Amino acid sequence: MFRCFPSVTLCKALAVAAVLAIGGESAAFAQTNASIELHANGKVTAGSIGLPDFPGARTFHGEHEDSTADLGLSFGDFHFRLLVAKHVTSASPQQVLEFYRKPLVRYGDVIECEHGLAVGSPKVAGSGLTCSDTKGHSAHSGGESNDAHELRSGIPRRFRVVGIDSGRADETHFTLLLIELPKESGASDHSR
């Protein structure tokens, strides 16, 4: 089982992809002028998300949840992808966030979010990326804690997230994500 963290939007997208993936690891279907491709695997690293490994962190192995996920769904022009890698470290949450700020700059402005709301400045990245989900609603942790603290960088349809589960006192659990959402009709496609 994969527990959703840190965003409700991710949980919804993950649930849709998981329902479609029940048939196996990889599936492809063809219709007249459309094709559906679905993939899912658990071999995701910080590097495949485009971020460095946090020194000394280890992959989180929960009893009832997966530590990594690579889910994708394509149907004609529709494309969705979610890469997830969960880690744990003895470092503080602040040390993890500070470590990832610089590598995230590579993808654009870095915004900091807590409880789905922007913390500090900028509140909105130059690309239009915000702390809310794609519908403009406040996004918050779908995991064990409501205290999800995140850094985000990228564009609204392709961005990276470093999420901290603040509900842990003894060690820091953090999640690295790459999210690619379907392009809205008429939207430009300037991704990094």
Please, could you describe this protein's structure?
With 192 residues, this protein is an alpha+beta fold. It has one domain (8-180). It has three helices and ten strands; from the N terminus they run H-E-E-H-E-E-E-H-E-E-E-E-E. It has helices at 8-21, 46-49, 93-105, and strands at residues 26-30, 35-41, 58-59, 68-75, 78-89, 110-114, 117-119, 149-155, 158-165, 172-180. Strands 1, 2, 3, 4, 5, 6, 7, 8, 9 and 10 form a ten-stranded antiparallel beta sheet that branches. Strand 1 (26-30) and strand 2 (35-41) form a beta hairpin. The longest helix has 14 residues, at 8-21. The two termini are 31 Å apart.
Q: Any key phrases for this structure?
A:
192 residues, 10-stranded antiparallel sheet, 16% helix, disordered N terminus, 3 helices, alpha+beta
